[in-house]
Amino acid sequence: MEVPTIARRSSWTGGAVQERLRRLNLITTIPPLAFVGVLLLVLTARSWWHVVIQVVGLIAALATAERWTAGDYLRVARPSLVVTAVVWLAGALTDDSAAFYGLSLVGSFLIPPLRRHRIAALFGLGMLVAVVGAANLLVHDDRVGARLVQYVLVPAVAVLVSTAFMFVSQKFFDLIAELEQSREREAELAVIRERVRFAGDLHDIQGHTLHVVKLKVALAEKLLDSDVDRARAELGEVRSLVGDTIVQTKELAHAQRRLNLSAELENAKNLFEAAGIHVRVERESEVDDRVSELLGQVLRETTTNILRHAQARQVRITLARRGIAIVNDGAAEEGPPELGGLATLRHRLGENGGELEVSRTDGRFLTAAAFPSRIGGDR
Known about the structure:
Blueprint: H1 15-44, H2 48-69, H3 74-93, H4 101-110, H5 118-134, H6 136-139, H7 144-223, H8 228-253, H9 261-274, E1 278-283, H10 289-309, E2 314-320, E3 323-328, H11 340-351, E4 355-361, E5 364-370
Parallel strand pairs: 1-2
Antiparallel strand pairs: 2-3, 3-5, 4-5
């Protein structure tokens, strides 16, 4: 017999999900089956022997059901099938019409998980129950018609009904398992997205700082022989910059970091001027506080890209209420105009309702970020 899908359920759900499903299955499966079994025992048992064989069959069926809730029932279900078949045979021979109950339950657990030939297996189980029940006619020759209904027809139909019910029940629990797995995956994706966001912020802080430190140290080396005081000042700025970066990194680790656009603008001007680049800042209006931090990220990333990848001599920064535009000359004529950090920023701005434009024309590189006129509660 091939291994049923449900026997491998624990391999495609997490441990926590599997435990929740097991508890749910235990609550919704074991008590009803036990109640029906005890009810049949009370209503049909006419001797201590009937009590014994029905209890044995019920125990075998409940053991299979308990293992089914754990996703590891196959090794129990096979011997239980044999035990309950013997119980049903003993019940048929001793005139106990309810002894088929355990066999119908065990069979209903075995058939639905099969990948193929489930219909054939179902009819085979029905035939087994009917043939075993027909043994009652070997020892009792009165009321043949009634006995055929009681020991052949009713048990066979009961097997069909219980198997159909178990098939629906299994589909329901498999659907619950898939939904739980989807929730786990969503949680994992949320963690991954947060890690990517953290990595991007860390790159914004440390990548930018390291490049600035490199420029300032190189400038200080050139000034050592000609202007020691200025070289010392540059090294002091490097030390201050490293200290600020350490603080920002700690704030980022505790989710407290927020960029200040004014500070980023002043920092960009100082960096460009230190690199011999002329900067012009134009303010069309005061920047909306709700987009200030994102525009600061755009300015920081663009400043780093200009210093790294362009041979710029002039930079123009234009600030609007809900946007910023940075234009520089000296852009490379070859290669893609969009850089990796800006691609990440485009995604981040898009999540907040903004747009990022990147273009290159006649050696000039434009980076522009803008937000729609209605954002975050505007009316």
